[in-house]
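ingest -> validate -> predict -> emit
validate: passed (alphabet ok, no gaps, 329 aa)
predict: started
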Amino acid sequence: MHVKLEDQDRFDDERWKPIERHFEDSEGRLDGGALSGFFRVFLMRNGHYTKPAATFQEFERRYAGAGFDPDDLAIELGWHAEYYDIIRGKKKHGWKLVEAALSKLRGLEASTTRPLLLNLLHRAEEEGLSEEDLARCIEMVSGFILRRYVCNVGSRAYSCWFVAVCRDLGNQPVEGLRSFLLAGGREYPDNARFEQCLLRFPLYQSDYARHVLEKLERSYLHKEQPADLSEAEIEHIMPQTLDKDWQNDLGQDYERIHSKWLHTLGNLTLSAYHKGVSNRAFRIKRDLYEQSKITLTHQLAAKTAWNEDEIVARGTDLAGRATAIWIGP
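emit:
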């Protein structure tokens, strides 16, 4: 509507269609919902919340009377669509530390963080935010989300918080973000609280079980090629159904032990040997664990028995390792 009639074909070909291509499927069909979602995130990147249903009206309100240049605005949208592809994982960021941090955050499927991420990626491109500081900000967001999730702290306010923080980053985004996440009664669990909650958390029944186990596995320094996890499944070491052998191994208190620790981090691993052995005795499983190239699983072969003490010890160790992966305040 703000492009001269004689210039609209050129504008459509050179400016508008390249933006739409970011939101097309493999057959070239435009995903209108995804495009609208991008425009909403673009509007919120500077700290002003917009309701999904108000995206068009807010965009029109913000630009219609501003005397803007359609080409300039379309170019700006194109740059941010590139950032948005990185945020969604459609392409990788060129900085290794940043891509690793984004990969971790993508695993949490936290779309409410996108306005903040768009703001930060733009700062890195235009204002000189360093690779280390950009990665640190993204790591803090991942830590904030996962730690609160494990500690059973609600996420309802995220859609507003991750917009509002864009106004409070200041000239020092790392410190600005940290201050925001710790201010206003927001809970950002420290290491001690996170470890205690993660030890007892029913991880298997959560949305992030595989993500957590994969990131823990990748945290080990492998001398050889890291194990291929594509065919590995989540396995309960102490199985979901206890036969007489397992009952005897666990002792008279087997029902309490099974109920309390079955789905927790200490009793879970990744294995490609899942089928046919999941309910077998630990002494049989150990032989297969010995052959595994997955560090989380191979380590279990050194155990002579599997009981409550072993589950708690392993869970405590892995929870401690998790504090370095999902950083705290």
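The chain has a mean pLDDT of 94.
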